[in-house]
Amino acid sequence: MTDLVTPSFGKLVAIKTLDGHTGWVWDVALSSNHQILASVSNDMMIRLWNANTGLQRGAAKDNGHSNWVRAVRFSPAGRYLATASDDMTIRISDVNTGFTYRMLKGHTGKVRAVEFCPDGRTLASASDDFTVRLWNVSSGSLLKTLNGHSGWVRAVAFSPDGKTLASTSDDNTIRLWDTTTGNEIHQLNGHESSIRAVCFSPDGKLLASGSQDKVLRIWDTTSGAMLHVLRGHSGLIHAVAFSTDGNQVVSAADDLTIRVWAAPLGFACVRVLTGYTGWVRAITLSDDENMVVYTSDDMTIKIWHSA
Question: How many domains is the chain partitioned into structurally?
Fold first, then answer.
């Protein structure tokens, strides 16, 4: 793996490759205490790993899902795991026992993404039925259905204060929603194709999005204005993530590269990781930024540490 890097941004060192899945690894999540890693795949397996040793803690195929599992997220406190599937359901399971705590039904299309609100009380889901849904985690009841997209909804993200939800779609738009009222706040236009990834900056003032048009865009969340257009990838962008301090954005694409963009330098690209043998579909950064996890179409999960 080649690491082209600006010296002031340090280096990443590959420390572990986790094998076990027999299909594409669609998503990966890291618990808030950085101890457990969860992964899901089109092999219909949900796997839990010790994030420090790389040893598998458990695997569940009898998890209630009857089709590919697309997304996984830990609750903020780390007690629950939410998974989304092509079977049109969301399951909330106990991390320690694997017991399905809640099964959420209502979507009429594949569920492609889930996200816990920062307070852990609400779960957002995105589906091919063109809707975003908000659920009460404790009761499993449907709180709101957010209508407006005219294409499959690919990704969702909560603002750090939980008051705003961002959703992306094959209709080439990003929509910002008021989570209390369910009203649309902004519709962000500019991408020329399906938008596959979105994330808020730690202070909630910026939004980063990645698209099938091979471009990242940075937005002002208050005004909805587009601030930066980041070019460099030559393939569909699957994942974006801000660093904890908000100074960097990481993106992964079908061009088999991962790029790091520096906010203090006008979001200039300062690092390119190459050498992957499959599309990188998910990125997870630990809060202390000492651990980075990538999943790939080569059916593996790779863990990197900052040197």
Answer: 1
